[in-house]
């Protein structure tokens, strides 16, 4: 097994990299080499035996398999450009991107890497931070077969509970992720609407949450908890579970694909408008479920609830 590298230690990346590093320790193989824009985010990974490295091209130079887990398409493109222009050979290296990016970004990235005889796998994930911590994410994976077979054992029962194989065409994995997020964002909107309805009618958020968890499953129940625990608007010095701008990016990717294929997404449009209104009102430090705050305002309540932060000061 070649040495493994990692870039991206955000809400998802740190949990995923930690599980991978623990597996490398169990297998008594060489440690994960990591880099992140904010290196201090890696302290917990270092404590598990991970090896910090000061730049992404240096990670690439030392590793045969390089995972990335970053916010958006522009960050991924910038990282790959830095690797391509580093002067180090990329021959036979496997790049595995777990971020949610547009299929076109996947296509161009894979093509650029192929020119230097490197493989690119799109391996986006389903599930939030607590599921990442438990190593129970669902992965979609697409790209060259040899690379997929090398990488799958690093995912299955290490970072994920299930790997959905999308075949040779990496763009299909990214397409599946974007399609999945249509469900995610609509479900957050639905749970938010039901919880505002429950509060305003006097039913109460407690019984509503019990029902959502029991009748609609743990994912919907988890979205309800983001509202009732105030996690939709966390303290300003914290990192949201799934940042509102990331979900806005995902919804916009879905709309560009939908437009090209003459598909309408009216539910997603409502959710997107409410997420954008939430960000306009309360800033960047919001979870994707923060459309709830806007639904509260429309029902004559404050954006904030009793357990969220109370403003932007
Ligand atoms: N959170 C979820 O529930 C969830 C679930 C499934 C998929 N996703 C997707 O997974 C990806 C990562 O999500 P996340 O929640 O982990 O995001 P996050 O917490 O915002 O972390 C983003 C990562 O990208 C790095 N980064 C951001 N801007 C950068 C820049 N300009 N240059 C270099 N590095 C930069 C950050 O570095 P710093 O640490 O220095 O900020 C961090 O390592 C996203 O594509 C998201 O859509 C998220």
Tally of individual domains? 2
Distance between the termini: 50 Å
Structural class: alpha/beta
Instruction: Tell me the number of strands.
Output: 9
CATH class of the largest domain: Alpha Beta
Q: With helices defined by DSSP (H or I, 4 residues minimum), what is the helix count?
A: 13
Q: Which molecules are bound besides the chains?
A: NADP nicotinamide-adenine-dinucleotide phosphate
What would you give as the CATH superfamily of the largest domain?
NAD(P)-binding Rossmann-like Domain
Shape: globular
Assign a percent range to the helix content.
Answer: 40-55%
Task: Return Rg in Å.
Answer: 20 Å
**How big a fraction of the residues is strand?**
5-15%
**How are the strands ordered across the major sheet?**
3-2-1-4-5-6
Remind me, CATH topology of the largest domain? Answer: Rossmann fold
Mean pLDDT: 98
The CATH architecture of the largest domain comes to: 3-Layer(aba) Sandwich
Strand count, sense and barrel status of the largest sheet are:
6 strands, parallel
Could you please describe the fold and organization of this structure?
The chain has 313 residues and is of the alpha/beta class. The chain folds into two domains: 4-168, NAD(P)-binding Rossmann-like Domain (Rossmann fold), CATH 3.40.50.720; 175-298, N-(1-d-carboxylethyl)-l-norvaline Dehydrogenase, domain 2, CATH 1.10.1040.10. The chain is 52% helix and 11% strand. The protein has a six-stranded parallel β-sheet with strand order 3-2-1-4-5-6, sandwiched between helices. A three-stranded mixed β-sheet has the order 7-8-9. The longest helix is centred in the middle third of the chain and has 32 residues, at 170-201. The site of NADP nicotinamide-adenine-dinucleotide phosphate (NAP) has 26 residues, from helix 11.
């Amino acid at each position: 097994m070649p040495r493994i590298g990692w870039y991206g230690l955000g809400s998802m990346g740190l949990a995923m990299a930690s599980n991978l590093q623990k597996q490398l320790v169990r297998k008594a193989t060489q440690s994960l080499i990591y880099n992140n824009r904010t290196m201090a985010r890696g302290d917990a990974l270092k404590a598990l035996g991970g090896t910090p490295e000061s730049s992404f091209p240096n990670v690439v130079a030392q590793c045969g398999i390089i995972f990335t887990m970053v916010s958006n398409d522009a960050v991924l493109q910038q990282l790959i450009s830095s690797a391509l222009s580093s002067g180090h050979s990329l021959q036979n290296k496997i790049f595995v991107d777990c971020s949610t990016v547009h299929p076109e970004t996947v296509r161009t990235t894979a093509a650029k890497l192929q020119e230097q005889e490197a493989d690119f796998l799109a391996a986006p994930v389903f599930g939030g931070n607590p599921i990442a911590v438990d190593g129970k994410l669902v992965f979609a994976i697409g790209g060259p077969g040899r690379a997929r077979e090398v990488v799958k054992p690093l995912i299955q029962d290490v970072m994920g509970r299930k790997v959905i194989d999308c075949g040779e065409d990496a763009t299909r994995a990214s397409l599946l992720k974007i399609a999945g997020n249509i469900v995610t964002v609509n479900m957050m909107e639905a749970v938010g609407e039901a919880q505002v309805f429950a509060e305003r009618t006097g039913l109460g958020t407690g019984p509503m949450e019990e029902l959502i968890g029991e009748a609609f499953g743990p994912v919907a129940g988890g979205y309800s908890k983001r509202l009732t625990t105030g996690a939709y608007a966390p303290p300003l010095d914290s990192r949201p579970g799934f940042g509102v701008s990331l979900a806005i990016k995902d919804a916009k990717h879905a709309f560009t694909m939908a437009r090209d294929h003459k598909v309408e997404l009216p539910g997603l449009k409502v959710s997107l408008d409410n997420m954008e209104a939430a960000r306009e009102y309360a800033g960047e430090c919001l979870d994707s479920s923060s459309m709830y705050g806007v639904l509260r305002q429309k029902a004559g309540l404050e954006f904030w609830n009793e357990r969220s932060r109370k403003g932007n000061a």
